[in-house]
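To close the section, here is one more complete example, presented without commentary so you can practise reading it yourself. The ligand is 3-phosphoglyceric acid.
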Amino acid sequence: MVFSPAYQGMKVEKLEKTIPREGPIVTLVLDGVGISKPDGKDGDAYIIAETPVLDELTAEAKARKLFCHLKAHGSAVGLPTEDDMGNSEVGHNALGAGQIIAQGAKLVNQLLVDSDDILKTQNWADFIEYAAKKDKSIHLFGLLSDGGIHSHFDQLTALVSKIAATGVRSVIVHPLLDGRDVPPTSGLEYIDMLEKLLEDVNKAHSGFSYRIGSGGGRMHCIMDRYGSDWSMVERGFNTMVHGHIDESELVSGYKGYYCCAKAAVEHARELFPEKKDQYNPPFVVVDSEGKPIGMVEDGDVVININYRGDRAVEISQVFDCPETEKFPQFDRSAIRPYPKGIKYAGLLEYDSETKIPKSFLVPPPSISSVSSELICAAGLRTYAVAETHKFGHVSFFWNGNRSGLIDDKLEKYEEVVSYPNSETEKKPEMKAPEVTKKLCDAIRSGKFENIRCNLANGDMVGHTGSLEAAVKAMEAVDACVGEIKKAVEETGGVLMITADHGNAEVMMKKGKPVTSHTCNPVPFIIFDPKFAGEYELCADSIDTPGLTNITATFLNFLGIKAPEFYRKSLIKLL
Ligand SMILES: O=C(O)[C@H](O)COP(=O)(O)O
Ligand SMILES: [Mn+2]
Ligand SMILES: [Mn+2]
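Output:
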């Protein structure tokens, strides 16, 4: 076996028996396409849509016993509880690593919520005790919900009370409304909970000022990912740091500056009901003289309360860039001079390869010996493709939250530039046809043994809450799967189709639109046109088969034995 120089020494065992196929082994992730309960009440875009290709592939795989359901939420993907829905980060981590990893959510709970261990860390001293000693404000910003995908309200509660106990007198919270991992207009409930939390601290400690300073919708302010729309980051930064709202926001009577968060959100709802929480315009809380009450000042501490990396990396780069350097994406001093000596930390480390952010309160999960390393060590060539919104899913998340290629001689990762987020509902086909074209070219090229692809539609359109758009999304996906099937058939490869978690299969609850993920299982379909009974699906013999079992499966198709610490393969060679 040839070892790539970067992975010399990594132990890769070949399977004794192999499944000889001429074409590549293709893993296709239909992002956010789960299997709903068949009571027809959920507004299941997958069932409602005309999906002849997927229907036929499913029927054929069932007939050959090459179909099963897999668990994609809760403990199967390392989340704290069985009520935690799956998400792209943990789903793609699971698919790439083949192991159940205690995820960031769980690690933060252990250190911050379930114990006082965080108080013993050096960073607690450097950031929180520092603010108490120097009498600086601590700014907490991030996603305000209990969706449990990027952040959790319980963690914010624990953080605020521990900061208060450390003696910090001034805390300013800059919440981003969610409506994507929780019901679309639930934001005010969380604002109320936050106001109560802060008021309780103020009542218990005389001279303390814990307040909401500014905010906005997560898909309009700050939480961009993969460089898709830096203007979101700039907008959120100016709102939070400089207490400034751009004039373009001040339309139809929207004022931008309000006496409290609740007044701001209520007014935005009245004027722009279609925006819901995700796209809520930015707001700044001002005093009776119209002065922002919570701008970031010299020497203040700024903490990102999100633990998940993809949508936290860009804003972290803004704060990590030294104040003496020009930040390449936008001018941090456009509104007023950028405050000096800001101390920035993430709740977690978001990218452990590029070390973003430079400081963090909780060490991230360590995800090692991922399948990409083994495949490179075996000298096999890999192609990965997705559109921008999901590009980091097939690269960064797949490889254990590390950016970049594992081996540039053996791997090629391609991104198809997405339409902006705001176009998703209007263009439910998204860039799936372009992604599919690249994928089929790669399948036919004969240059890759291993291929993976993510089609974003089920998830991204699912998050809009529009059943009609989600049905169109599923139909677009189906047409793409038809093309992919043809290319696999022509080349004599194998296609595995699955999803990272549910979303599009539940677009309604009690007649109301649903935008969030689900706890449903996901499909696993093997399409192997040259199948001659050399193996069988053995999901039944595995205790709770889940996403992590797919990794050993594609390794086996590639002729590689999965390491002992991987979860079992879904196929048994006969
Ligand atoms: O970031 C998002 O878009 C959602 O919160 C979660 O969706 P994802 O896990 O599918 O990316
Ligand atoms: Mn996803
Ligand atoms: Mn999603």
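Once you have examined the tokens, check your reading against these statements. Residues 185 and 276 are 6 Å apart (CA to CA). Residues 32, 88, 459, 463, 503, 517 surround manganese (II) ion (ligand 3) (CB under 6 Å).
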